[in-house]
UniProtKB/TrEMBL annotation:
Its EC number is 3.5.4.5. Residues 1-127 form the CMP/dCMP-type deaminase domain. This is Cytidine deaminase. It catalyses: cytidine + H2O + H(+) = uridine + NH4(+); 2'-deoxycytidine + H2O + H(+) = 2'-deoxyuridine + NH4(+). This enzyme scavenges exogenous and endogenous cytidine and 2'-deoxycytidine for UMP synthesis. Keywords: Hydrolase, Metal-binding, Zinc. Transmembrane segments: none annotated. The lineage of its organism: Bacteria, Bacillati, Bacillota, Clostridia, Peptostreptococcales. PANTHER family: CYTIDINE DEAMINASE (PTHR11644:SF2). One of its GO terms (molecular function) is cytidine deaminase activity. It comes from Alkaliphilus flagellatus. Belongs to the cytidine and deoxycytidylate deaminase family. It comes from the Bacteria. CDD domains: cytidine_deaminase.
Length: 140
């Protein structure tokens, strides 16, 4: 799957965004190293804090289906601009690998490519927990 094809999947996913409060639809599409695609949209909530971003929707769908080997994530909104993931999403994404490719799209023909390590430098990750004596998340 090309970057452009993954962006197209994110644009399609954006159609499902549930955004009665912000009116700011976002779509994401995640490619696994095995070649499977999981899409996501933002899902808002009257309590506001219950809102889930498009990126995390896609990640939680993948992980809950047993797919943790994330290769790339494409993100797009309705803005005529690039929409970068929020801080919470960056932290969740880096959980699954500093090398994950981030495709930040304005359209299917106009996107920027980064790694999540570029977007969240000097991050705190599972490897830091492993540095504790014996590790505190052994066996996970
Ligand atoms: O990268 C982003 C940025 C924002 N949002 C959502 C959260 C909220 O529903 C709306 C406005 O912040 O956009 C995402 O889904 N992904």
């Amino acid at each position: 799957m090309t970057d452009k094809e993954l962006v197209k999947k994110a644009i399609e996913a954006k159609n499902n965004a549930y955004v009665p409060y912000s009116k700011f639809p976002v779509g994401a599409a995640l490619l696994t190293k095995e070649g499977r695609v999981y899409t996501g949209c933002n899902v808002e909530c009257a309590s506001y804090g219950g809102t889930n971003c498009a990126e995390r929707t896609a990640i939680f769908k993948a992980v809950s289906e047993g797919d943790r080997n994330i290769d790339a994530i494409a993100v797009v909104s309705d803005l005529d601009d690039y929409t970068y993931p929020c801080g919470i999403c960056r932290q969740v994404i880096v959980e699954f690998g500093k090398g994950i490719k981030m495709i930040i799209a304005k359209s299917e023909d106009d996107f920027r490519v980064h790694t999540i390590d570029d977007l969240l430098p000097h991050s705190f990750t599972p490897e830091d927990l492993e540095k504790m004596d014996g590790g505190i998340n052994n066996g996970i």
